[in-house]
Amino acid sequence: MMEEYCNERTRGELLDEIRATNFSLIELGLYLDINPDDKKALCLCNECAKKLRTLTDNYQKIYGPLTIEFPCNKWRWLEEPWPWEKGGSF
Amino acid sequence: MWLYQKKLEYPVRIKCTNPRLAKFIVSQYGGPDGELAASLRYLSQRFGMPDQKSKAILNDIGTEELAHLEMVGSIVHQLTDGVPVEELEKAGLGAYYTDHGVDVYPASAAGVPFTAAYIACKGDPVANLQEDLAAEQKARATYEKLINLCADDPDVVDPLRFLREREVVHFQRFGEALNGVQEKLADKKFYKNFN
Fold first, then answer.
1. Cβ contacts of residue A87 below 8 Å, gap of 6+?
2. Taking CB atoms and an 8 Å limit, are A33 and B9 in contact across chains?
3. What is the average pLDDT value for chain B, to the nearest integer?
4. Model's pTM, two decimal places?
């Protein structure tokens, strides 16, 4: 179901959602470093982490690895563009 | 250790090259209040922090600064990639081109190469965190100046606005970490008096 949902969207849209979810996680992480007992923030952080895992798994299956920890049948890490290049943000 | 993620923290999608803007923006790569200085400052200072929260915040903000370094490098690269020499020279990048071509070299807008003298590791957590607070404000101010200089290109302003906002959040978190450190140091003195 999730994969179908991913296929309907462009690579850029999917990556935007991954970036947004990852950003929420970064922001909540910094907040929790100082406020570790905030249960609401912790809950939100865990939700984001779960969502990010699903999104990145689906993205990587189609577009190749975002980290070298994602197993592939061939070495897709070389595939261009790299993130700093024109068009690399999709 | 770190694990590279093959994506930027926030997208950089610049349609038109503009070496004049790159000449200014490179300062946030390798200038006095740039992202290289920020990441090295926090990642070096974290070794001497006295409490859990300040260790974590320096580690995690230092890590985010590496992502910002990559974003600023991407902006400079996309603004200069493929630009003919004559245009680089007209934009004031003749001297830069002589030594670096269109590589992204850590230097200030005025061409001063990066130096570790931009950062402090004072062996004192209060002094270090105070420096970090000032560094975030200086970086925010620099981004505001860059946003003014780049006003005619929304593709450039967009990631600069994101980076500016992050300075504000980091300042907030460092302030809270400093409060914690000061409380802990005050506690220590209190217990010592009773020993």
1. A81, B13
2. no
3. 96
4. 0.94
